[in-house]
Amino acid sequence: MVHHGETVDAMLDRLSAPDVALTALGENQALQAAEDLAGKLVFDSVARIISSPRVRTLRTAAIMAEYFNLSEDNMQTDERLLERNLKSFIGQRRKRIMAMPEETLVQYGAEPRATFAARNYAVLADASYANGVTVLVTHQGNLPPLFEAAVAPVPTSLPATQALLLYDQLG
Fold first, then answer.
1. Most CB atoms within 10 A, among 5, 25, 99, 131?
2. Domain total for the chain?
3. Which of 39, 81, 40 is nearest to 60 (CA)?
4. HSE (side-chain half, CA atoms, 13 Å) at 164
5. What band does 101 get if pLDDT is binned at 50, 70 and 90?
6. What is the pLDDT of residues 23-32, one digit of tens each?
7. Which residues have C-beta within 8 Å of that of residue 140, sequence separation ≥ 6?
8. Strand duo 2-3 + 133-138: pairing
9. Coil, strand or helix: which one is 158?
10. Cα dist. 133→13, 107, 161 in Å?
11. What is the spatial distance between Cα 99 and Cα 102, in angstroms, rounded to a whole number?
C-alpha cells in the first residue's frame, strides 16, 4: 500500500480537489517508495499496480511502474481506491474536518465511514488472489481501513507472507 506523493494541498493540510498534481517532491517520493519497496522484496517482484484514478495517484503509479519495468497491461485503476467522498469539504483544513463527528460529516454529504471502509476491504480482498506482489496506490485516508483489513485476523485465503509484506511496507 502506497500513499501518493506530496501535493500542494497536502502541504497546506487541505482536503484535495480531485485533479491535484504531485509536486516535484511528490514525484521524488514516488520514486523513493519504489526503491524502498524493491529493497524489501525477497522472492518476488512487483507484478501489478492498482491505483486510484486520481491524477496524483496515477502519476505515483506510473513512476513506480517505470521503476519496476511494468507494462500498461500490469497497471489498472480501481475507483474503490478513491478517497472518502467529502466533496462539500474540499479545500478546508484536513485536521478540522477529521475532528468532526461522523454524524456531522454524513449530514453534510460525506460518504459514511462504513461504506468507505467496505469498498477498501473489497479491493484488498480482490488483490490478494493475484500472483506476485500487488501494489495499491491510494490516498492517505484509505490507508487505515486497508491496513486494518491487512493485519486484522488474516483470512485463510490471504497467505501470511503477503499480509506481513503489506504490514512491513506501512511500518
1. 5
2. 1
3. 81
4. 6
5. very high
6. 999 999 999 9
7. 3, 10, 83
8. parallel
9. coil
10. 32, 39, 11
11. 9
22: helix, coil or strand?
A: strand
What pLDDT digit, counting tens, does each position of 42-97 carry? 777 899 999 999 999 999 999 999 999 999 999 999 999 999 998 888 888 888 98
The model's pTM: 0.82
CATH code: domain of residue 148: 3.40.50.1240
Q: Is 3 helix (H, G, I), strand (E, B) or coil?
A: strand
Q: In this structure, are residues 30 and 22 in contact, taking their beta carbons and an 8 Å threshold?
A: yes
Q: How many CA atoms lie within 13 A of 83 on its CB side?
A: 20
Report which residue type is found at 143.
Answer: L
The CA distances from residue 102 to 34, 39, 92, 110, 143, in Å, are 35, 39, 16, 9, 18
pLDDT of residue 121: 87
In order, the DSSP letters of 42-103 are SS--EEEEEE-SSHHHHHHHHHHHHHTT--GGGEEE-GGGSPP--GGGTTSBHHHHHTS-HH
Per DSSP, the chain holds a count of helices (H) and strands (E) of 8, 4
Q: What range defines the domain where residue 72 resides?
A: 2-170
